[in-house]
Amino acid sequence: MLEFQAGSRPAFEEVFARYREPLYGFFRRRLTNRERAEDLTQETFIAVIRATVRYQPKALFRTYLYSIALNLLAAERRKLARTAPATNEVIENAADEVLWVRGALRKLEPSDREILMLREYEQMSYAEIAELLRIPINTVRSRLFRSRLALKCHLEPEREGVKCP
Amino acid sequence: MNHPIEQEELMTYLDGELAANRAAATASHLERCQECQKLAAELRDLSDQLSNWQVEQSSPALTNNIAAEMDKYSGQPRGKFAFLARRQTWAWAGGLSVAAFVVAILIQPRSTSQYGKIDFARARNPLPFQIRDSKANTFFDEVRARNPMIARTTQLTIAVKDFAKMRPLVDEILKRHGGYLGQSNISSPVDSGPVLEATLRVPSDQLDAAMAELKALGRVESESQAGEEITQQYVDLEARLSNARNSEKRLTDLLRERTGKLADVLAVEKEIERVRGEIERMEAERKNFANRVDFATLNIKLFEESRAGLQMPGSLSPRLRNAAVEGYKTTVESIVGAASFLLAYGPSVLFWTAVLFFPARLVWRRLRRHLLNSL
Known about the structure:
The complex is a heterodimer of chains A (about 160) and B (about 375).
Chain A: H1 2-5, H2 9-30, H3 34-50, H4 61-83, H5 96-106, H6 110-120, H7 126-133, H8 137-155
Helix pairs in contact in A: 2-3, 2-4, 3-4, 4-7, 6-8, 7-8
Chain B: H1 7-14, H2 20-32, H3 34-51, H4 61-73, H5 87-115, H6 120-124, H7 136-145, E1 150-160, H8 166-176, E2 180-187, E3 195-203, H9 207-215, E4 219-229, H10 231-257, H11 262-294, E5 295-304, H12 316-374
Parallel strand pairs in B: 1-5
Antiparallel strand pairs in B: 1-4, 2-3, 3-5
Helix pairs in contact in B: 1-3, 5-12, 7-10, 10-11
């Protein structure tokens, strides 16, 4: 990123190539609309480009990138809550087990779910998650454990209908 | 079975986030504990199940849009002027401006309230004020109704070309305007030409004209004026004078109308004598006040310009020593001044910084979030 800041275009092309699909996956797993996920991926990179002159390497670039993505996601969710507060998720063609996982994830507390997804899908360390969400690292650990136990409960077919922790 | 590790620690170990010293103990326990092995297997299975949710590839159009944006970025400032585009630069500039503004506000009212404003226009042209022997009460009211009594003092430093001709010219100016010479002193320092320092007394209404003529004698190096209002002091003096006269009259009546022992008569006469002495002293003081108002004080300093600096001093060492002493004094004074300033304004600045810090930080964070969202 610092090389791009100094004017190297190939440096940013490398950044883009490395984070393009993970970032798209980040939005895609959190939004139902594929086009919006692509739009927000694009907007994240554009925000990075426009803020290049102000960029200071205070944290990992990945943390910086995902903090922008999280802000955009929060704005998108606020917008969706205003425009279509009660729309149901569109059922897409997906394997049963994927739908089962998505359904179980949706039952988690939003903050716990976010921590679990950042760990499982974005492969972030506890420290990165703590910095990104601005919470203590011990909180990350305890919530992650709690969300994993809850998800395990939700994923057990025989426990359907039984209240999970 | 007794578990030396908690379940959360086991999860942390599986995630590769446990500290090395605890990781060894956890691994050792995991090898022996079937319950923990079961939990570890469940957590791994959970991760496997979650990894089944894979998303499709993004659209190729994304690359084109980003490339177009990168082309635009090429025109943005970089290099040594890039700091202008940084938020921190503007935040610091804004913060310093606010601090300077606060300090300016804190300083301004103090300076005006401490010294007040002197109305030089009014002081320059006071109404002619004449002292009258009248009854104290009526005089008291009259003085209050009049314009204030102002004693004017002026400093004038003039560099002249021909010093020898100056003294007669100054005397002529004084004579023309009805003034007189209060004090004068002529000196001839080693390293410069002769210097005349004099205190002139000039009628207040003639001061401006006299000053104009004095200024024409040479080049004015410095000029300053001051006006001291003495109305209150004068009124107080008049009141005390009136009381003393009444006392004198009562004592005189007492002496004339009553008879008594010789010792009592002598005591009254002694008291009359004391009161009269006091009255005379106050009358002299009143004349002095009147004189200060009617005649402005003009301190002038005339020195010969052409000779200044032509004669070399006898020895260089005293001058260097004096300069060193002066430098030391200036340093000490500047340190004391800086410390005084910090003590006088530091607490206020700290207070306002503490009050404004959190609201400013809140506003800044909200603004930053808003800007980020609007990108």
